[in-house]
Amino acid sequence: CYTIMADEEPKPLAYIPEVILKKRKNNEEWAIRRKLQLEQRVKKSKGDNFVIKKPEQFIREYRDKELDLIQMKYRGKRQRRTIWTPESKLLFIIRIQGKNDMHPKTRKLLYSLRLRRIFSGVFVKASERILEILQKVEPYVAYGYPNLKNVNDLIYKKGLAKVDKQRVPLTDNNMIEQALGQYGIICIEDIVNEIANVGKHFKEVTSFLCPFALNKPEKALQGKKKPYKDGGDAGNREDHINDLISMMN
């Protein structure tokens, strides 16, 4: 027979503070939300915008980049044979092409001009080095001689300065004086004058300014890498660059 001990009592359940229970519940809810977010992100990445490249596409892109390098070298040799004499010391360069079929050496040259993004533009002083670079990257840029009106409009409408690693609009002459006052440049008008006349402190002023972020022009560019003189978009437009600037400003 079995004996039941009268003095034996049931053991009490372990006590868990309410704060811990709430924290545990919140953690579980957060984990569920996080899991759903990750699932949605994966689902989105596998949607219509997600494209798996085929081996043939990688081969084609590699050949395009190698062809770009060969053409760049050829354009560089052509430049040595025929020296182009610019009509003006001031040039404005606009990057008009992306980087899908661009060789890394071509991209490096564009970066040396501070043209890291498509439809960005910069003022430069014409020199033998600049002309050699332009010849090599010709299919990816349009350039020419900006007039005073476009110099003025670009700086007033889209002028940004780099201050403490931040892009700041040119709305405060005090900021200009602090950065360029030592060169006698204390306001926006002085910046316009220095660039338009390619003054002795042109380099300091253009370094102070960020590359201009231009608008995509409607129907002005057809995506053709042929030279402008041959019916394309690229290369030297001389004074006709002003029409393109007006459309993109």
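The record above closes out task 2.4. Task 2.5 opens with a second protein, given below.
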Amino acid sequence: VGADKVWAALPLLEYDSSVAPAIEWAFGNAFICKDTDTATKVAYHPRIQVRCITLDGDSMDPGGTVSGGSAPKAGASVLNHIDNLHSARKTCETGKAELQRVEQEMSGLHQVAGKYHALKQQVDLKRTELSLLEERLRQTTHHQHQEEVDRLKVAI
């Protein structure tokens, strides 16, 4: 009914464990709603019928009690602060999950980079060995004879 405009009140509260029974009794069957229209829909829905409190402090009770409706105060209400805190926590959790994903990806990239550098080092070593072998081959008598034969063929 309320989609992303309704939250259970109890998880939004922080309280001492010594007052837990009283808090659970007072807020255990209550929802926090973003606006009055949503609170009315949720509170009077035939399958829900639970007390709803808006971020402005209005209260809708399916028992017939409606309170609030006063002009907005100069400062933001406590419920608005709770809503902002709830949103900030969700953003923080999303950011932490993204950070963890990026760190795992970076770890994988570091492993690939290490393998790349090891293989590149081996290739460079083999190239150096090849150039040294070619140089030694040029200094053999067989290679010198082969060069002389090639020069004679060109001369003939």
